[in-house]
Amino acid sequence: MTPNSLPASAPAPVQPVAQPANQPAAHGACATCVHARHDALRRLGVRAEAADFVVALLGNPNTGKSTVFNALTGLRQHVGNWPGKTVSRAEGAFETDGKKYRIVDLPGCYSLCSSSHHEEIARDFILFGGPDVTVVVVDATRLERNLVIVLQTLEITGRVVVALNLMDEAKRRGLSVDARALSRRLGIPVVPMAARHGKGIDDLLAAIVSVATGAYETNPHRVHYGNGRLTARLEPIMRQLEQLFPGLPNTRWVALRLLDKDHSMIQAVREGTLGNIEAMTARVMPRLDTDALQDDQPALVPEERS
Amino acid sequence: MQPLIQTENPTPVGATTLDRLALHQAGRILALGLEGAERRRLLDLGFVPGARIEVELENPLGNPRAFRVLGGVVALRTEQAARITIALENPAS
Amino acid sequence: MSTTIGAPGGNHEAPDLLGMVESARDGYGDALADDAMEAYYAEANKITSEVVDAQGRHQGLSFDRRLDRILTSRIWGFPAMILLLWGVLWLTVAGANVPSAMLATLTMEHGYNLLHAAANFLGAPGWLSGFLIDGVYLGAAWVFSVMLPPMAIFFPLFTMLEDFGYLPRVAFNLDRLFHKAGAHGKQALSMMMGLGCNAAGIVSTRIIDSPRERLIAILTNNFSICNGRWPTLILIGTIFLGALAPAGLGSLVAATSVVATCLLGVAFTFLVSAVLSRTVLRGETSTFSLELPPYRPPRIMQTLYTSLIDRTLLVLWRALIMAAPAGGIIWLISNITVADQSIAAHLIAFLSPAGWLLGLNGVILLAYVVAIPANEIIIPTILMLTLTIAIKDPSLAGMAQAGVMTEFADGNLVRRILTAGGWTTLTGINLMLFCLLHNPCSTTILTIWKETRSAKWTALATLLPLLLGIAVCATIAALVRLTS
Ligand SMILES: Nc1nc2c(ncn2[C@@H]2O[C@H](COP(=O)(O)OP(=O)(O)OP(=O)(O)O)[C@@H](O)[C@H]2O)c(=O)[nH]1
Ligand SMILES: [Mg+2]
């Protein structure tokens, strides 16, 4: 499959707007539908029960996830100009086109492979929380490093939207990012925005809706590890995984995580619950469902205590 | 279009470690001499072999220092910087 | 998604798979996962080179660079931190006076008189109007007028520094000192969050990965003066130290005394961290990596608006749920008489020797007991108790009832009340120290327990600052008495 071609069958996919966000939105079919949706946005604050879709906000620290979250829910999640401001999950909701969306603001993480505690909260939610759409908020001024987590997310789920945030700063720094080309390259919608100034929120909303409802069929780009030692070692593990857990999606990602000694994956293999979304979710759900402040943090047990 | 990181290295004048670079001196990362979680953390932050790196800031006590790498500015302690091997950038370029 | 995947009830073939993974790692270890990381970066690099036009990629950085070179410089790095803290506090001290006076007039003169007139008109019995108006209402009104103005100034200013991006620079500057104390540089961030609220500071320690260093950060967070304590320091600093300065310099001296207390808290943070990391929390130091974001212009109007709305609502809410009941309790213990004396008088008499030893007095200690739920109500409690119990001067004793509180804001009345209650400069200074060094509020204690799930660490975090406070205050009191 060629990552450069969008499925022609997708009915009127919402084309990401490629202009810098500080210019007026393009006029045309897309702009119209965007505005129709905008009128329908109802910020629901914390009333997140009985939602039709779940949206996760993922991305490097300090890229504007909480800012986007606030814009969509009308809540006032704390925002601050330093990495690590958000350390637990926050949930809110919005409604558009008669559908209700639960949206989850996650702590920032540099990659889905790291295992610092607040980063695991984010990763676990993407892996087991079953989001319908994952919005990866990306810093346009540090695109290269930010793309790593986008590519990793695309290994786990194809239902991804990239929010190309901080376009105002990119412009000030003389960087211009071709959102349309990026979207073609990744096979997913890419929305340029400046969330702090309210720019691009409407387009992001439109992209979330079209991916959630399936109106935009993504064609997720997958990274090739080449033909080296890694691929040679991954393949038998992937075959074994397919045998043990038939129907398991993302065997390559799971195999890679096992090779990297990922504890929660190894535990899931031991318990035989790997890929059984319900069992795995049941294990993490108490953590994910209750107030993050109370329960997502296991006891701190330094050596000295025993 | 110009890539943010040139993939081919300019002729390295010599290999050294990141802690020995002077303030504002630049180089290219050759290797990370760290293991496990620490190695993963540095890779996450953009300390990847091949990337251009520049000593951006020194704190009032001289340690930690902050480095500009992959468009970001990241602070590391000297002990960590000492584990990162650098090829000095050709001063002419 | 199919739910039939996965073998039910454990998996006997799992060891094969895990063994296979183990042997695949043989000889390579982490290098295999590195290969994947390299593949991601190579791809990211390729894509970036295709979609980013980086013609002027260093443009627009010169401001950040220049500013950073000042704010982290050998000469200016530390002075800049102190100067910014001092500036924020001076603006708070100088700016809070007038609004405090206005709120006091509004609540304690107009509101108070109106309520009493209404009570008289309705023919309410004296004990009822006393309990509700002189107790519950006055407690809430004191909190509102003493606490709200300083917080409404301090918070927007602090938030603007945070939005600007100064906080990670402080962590960068201080890391060496934290490292020497066996702690983590990101503790500077949780310490600064603690300047707003210690409970928030405790939660923010999650950014520290090492459990050992995180516990150090949790145990020392209470040395950051929180929003419930700033106004106490500001008020006492103003009326006991600011008043000693020549006219016009009062607010400068007051701000300096508050900054000094805050810096003393930072010194205790380092000291106690160092002691902990060499005793109960010994262990390896971890690594430090922190991204320094670009400076971003703070949005002044929005910050003002949200801080004001958020803070006002919060203060009002806390005033209602904490101060109102406390006001009621104070009225009750001051007015219920047992064996010729009110309960409050008995308690104060009982606590007085200990208070004397600490260079404080029985009223202050009783106030700290009543105020365990929230630090905000310390000053109001002290003033209400002093007015009703400790003052023998009839012209002042009548005041709480008469509701003549309008002189309050220039500090003169509070000063008169407290001096009449037997306060000296030593009492003022020791109260400031005790305000810095005492047990955390109930919310913070609960948060520490939630984050650590350990009774032992929660108890240590609670008692450690209290014992330090007792030791420091007693030492100073003894020294002053010996030398004078
Ligand atoms: N200039 C500019 N600043 C932005 C934009 N979006 C967010 N910011 C600022 O970036 C900083 C970080 O924003 P947050 O929303 O807290 O970022 P976050 O991703 O939630 O950060 P963490 O919780 O630490 O992971 C804040 O100072 C925001 O005001 C934008 O589009 N343009
Ligand atoms: Mg956030």
Task: Write a structural description.
The complex is a heterotrimer of chains A (306), B (93) and C (484). With 306 residues, chain A is an alpha/beta fold. Chain A has two domains: 199 residues, Rossmann fold; 67 residues, no CATH class. Chain A has twelve helices and eight strands. Chain A has a seven-stranded mixed β-sheet, sandwiched between helices. The longest helix of chain A has 16 residues. Chain B is globular, with a radius of gyration of 12 Å. The two termini of chain B are 19 Å apart. Chain B is an alpha+beta fold and 93 residues long. Chain C has one domain. In chain C, helix 4 crosses helix 11, helix 9 crosses helix 21 and helix 14 packs across helix 15. Chain C starts with 13 loop residues before the first helix and ends with a helix. The chains are: A alpha/beta (306), B alpha+beta (93), C mainly alpha (484). The complex binds guanosine-5'-triphosphate (GTP) and magnesium ion. The site of guanosine-5'-triphosphate has 24 residues of chain A, from helix 2 and helix 5.
| Biggest sheet architecture of chain C | 2 strands, antiparallel
Query: In order across it, which strands form the biggest sheet of chain C?
Result: 3-4
Number of strands of chain B: 6
Unreliable parts of chain C: 1-10, 400-407
Structural class, judged by helices and strands of chain C?
mainly alpha
Helix count of chain C equals: 21
CATH architecture of chain B: Roll
H-E string of chain B: EEHEEEHE
Helical residue percent of chain C? Answer: over 70%
Largest inter-chain contact set = A-C, 85 and 85 residues
Coarse structural class of chain B: alpha+beta
Shape of chain B: globular
Average pLDDT for all residues of chain B: 84
Strand neighbour order, sheet with most strands of chain B? 1-6-2-3-4-5
- β-strand amount of chain B: 25-35%
Characterize the biggest β-sheet of chain B.
Answer: 6 strands, antiparallel
Order of helices and strands of chain C: HHEHHHHHHHHHEHEEHHHHHHHHH
Cα-to-Cα separation, first versus last residue of chain B: 19 Å
- Please identify which CATH superfamily of chain B we are dealing with: Ferrous iron transport protein A (FeoA)
Number of E-type strands of chain C: 4
Bound molecules: guanosine-5'-triphosphate, magnesium ion
